[in-house]
Structure formats: structure tokens, C-alpha cells
Specification:
By secondary structure, the chain is of the alpha+beta class. It is built from five helices and seven strands, in the order H-H-E-E-E-E-E-E-H-E-H-H.
Length: about 160
């Protein structure tokens, strides 16, 4: 991902109101992001723990998506797999995130969801920069292949939101 400014982030959201974007809190480490090692940037809003954001490049432009984290009430599975990077985590490592679709479909209440790493560190996991315990399904694949698959899955999720 290319270096991205705070203004770039604020202008790129496709499924959120301007007022919601104005109240968004960027990650504390935004100015120190390892941009060349990121295929997307995602974070949970520290002031609104059920609100999250994902920003990725799609079709040559930056696209921001507001997400909602599923409630953590009720039974949780013992393990979960991220649908983006295919990392397998123990309890609490993945979460269901839903996104209102962009445009008229979103205004009609349509949304899409996917299980993602709760810490949004997919890019670091596939590059081996953040270790994962246990056997990982794609661990034997070359790093370049894991990165390409992650980018393809992110692109697919963004396309579903754009509808």
C-alpha cells in the first residue's frame, strides 16, 4: 500500500456519512504505519469499540469501508479462521465484521460480512512479520502467493461492499 495521509483516509469512505467520518478516530500509530508491508489498513475505533474501518486500494483508488464488529456476547468458537488471510486464531482472534453496502443498496439496509483477524494484522501474518501459533493452513505456500491471495480476497470483499 502507498503512503496515505489522514486527508486521503477521510475522503475515501464509500459506505459512511460525512458526519461519521468526522467522528472517526485514526489508529494511534497512524504516522508510523509500515505502508510498504500493508495490503490494507484496518482498525477499531477506540472511542466506539463496535465500529471499525478498513481502507484498501481497489481498481486504482483508495476505498474506505466502515465496519461493525459483531457483539462478543454469547458462546465463542474455540478457534476461528480469518477469511482474508486464512490465519487460524484461538478464541478472540477473529471477529465477524459487517459492512453496509455502498449506495442505494446500503440505504436499503443491505450489508455484507466476513470473519477477519480482530487485530487487522493480516498483512503482517502473511509476510511472517507477526508470528502465529500452531499449524496454519497456508504456511507452506510461498510468501508471494500468500500476499497475492490476501490482496485478491480484500479486493473481493471491497467489490462486494461496492456492489
Amino acid at each position: 500500500m502507498q503512503d496515505t495521509t489522514r486527508d486521503d483516509i477521510a475522503r475515501c469512505f464509500v459506505n459512511s456519512s460525512r458526519s461519521a467520518v468526522r467522528t472517526m478516530t485514526l489508529p494511534r500509530d497512524f504516522d508510523d504505519m509500515p505502508w510498504p508491508d500493508l495490503d490494507y489498513v484496518g482498525w477499531i475505533d477506540p472511542r466506539a469499540p463496535r465500529r471499525a474501518y478498513l481502507v484498501a486500494e481497489h481498481a486504482g483508488r483508495l476505498v474506505g469501508i466502515e465496519l461493525r464488529a459483531a457483539s462478543s456476547d454469547g458462546p465463542r468458537p474455540r478457534t476461528g479462521m480469518c477469511e482474508l488471510c486464512h490465519a487460524v486464531h484461538r478464541v478472540g482472534g477473529t471477529n465477524l465484521f459487517t459492512a453496509r453496502k455502498a449506495g442505494a443498496a446500503g440505504k436499503a439496509g443491505n450489508s455484507v460480512g466476513t470473519y477477519m483477524c480482530a487485530d487487522f494484522c493480516c498483512s503482517l501474518y502473511v509476510r511472517g512479520r507477526k508470528p502465529l501459533g500452531g499449524n496454519q493452513p497456508e504456511q507452506a505456500l510461498p510468501t508471494e502467493t500468500r500476499i497475492a491471495q490476501l490482496v485478491r480476497r480484500i479486493d473481493g470483499f471491497v467489490a462486494r461492499v461496492l456492489g
